[in-house]
Amino acid sequence: METKVYSKEGKEIGTVQLNDEVFNIEVSNGAIYYAVNNELANRRVGTACTKTRAEVSYSNTKPYKQKGTGNARMGDKKSPIRVGGGTIFGPKPRDYSYTVPKKVKRLAMKSLLTLSVKEDRLVVVEDFTSENGKTKDVANVLKAFAAEEKRTVLILKDDDAMLRRAARNIPTLHVLAYDKLSAKELLYGKKILMLEGAASNLNSFFE
């Protein structure tokens, strides 16, 4: 399939060929679901921790005698049913990360790229960089595509350090390399700006 290529100023300057095997496949909602959930799970810190009755620093004495009070028997003040006592089945530090098959990840990325084309969210922009890493270099490009206030994804053809530096002060912009895409960002991005070089690289990257 063929799509338009725009200049940094937002003017049409040509076309680029996109691989139908990457940008025009049958969308797999299941693969997208698994890929996004996997990314969110892998980002979890997993440091939540509660104390059981064995770990609470409290008195070991019985609050009142076993018999004769009319109350239910009570072992100690660390009991989970008392204020200040331990927690039953509370969270403990754990690793939430897990892996999904490579084929599922690849299918998810191709499905998300296809979805962005079908929903008219994907724009191919001529290759550009930032000479001095100034935020205005990237801000002017976003303004040309009316993406300044929207959640936007910029896909690079390589790991351009100066371009990343120029983009890091824009809170609505997420910068990704073509070979390190994020399912979550591609799904929720209102506008996806892809450099022409990144589009060419993606044509063969998922083969």
Descriptive labels:
single chain; 207 residues; alpha/beta; Ribosomal Protein L4, Chain: A; six-stranded mixed beta sheet; 7 helices; 33% helix
Q: Quick summary of this structure?
A:
This protein is an alpha/beta fold. It contains 7 helices and 6 strands.
What does this entry look like structurally?
By secondary structure, the protein is of the alpha/beta class. It has two domains: 2-45 and 98-205, 3-Layer(aba) Sandwich (Ribosomal Protein L4, Chain: A); 50-90, no CATH class. It has helices spanning 20-23, 29-43, 102-118, 135-144, 161-167, 183-188, 196-205; strands spanning 2-6, 12-17, 122-125, 152-156, 173-177, 191-195. A six-stranded mixed β-sheet has the order 2-1-3-6-4-5. Helix 2 crosses helix 3 (102-118) and helix 4 crosses helix 5 (161-167). The longest helix is centred in the middle third of the chain and has 17 residues, at 102-118.
Number of helices: 7
User: Which homologous superfamily in CATH is the superfamily of the largest domain?
Assistant: Ribosomal protein L4/L1
Instruction: State the CATH class of the largest domain.
Output: Alpha Beta
Helix vs. strand class: alpha/beta
Q: What is the CATH topology descriptor of the largest domain? A: Ribosomal Protein L4, Chain: A
Low-pLDDT segments: none
Shape: elongated
Q: How much β-strand is present in the residues?
A: 5-15%
Tally of individual domains: 2
Biggest sheet features: 6 strands, mixed
| Secondary-structure arrangement, i.e. CATH architecture of the largest domain | 3-Layer(aba) Sandwich
Radius of gyration, CA atoms, in whole angstroms: 26 Å
H/E series: EEHHHEHEHEHEH
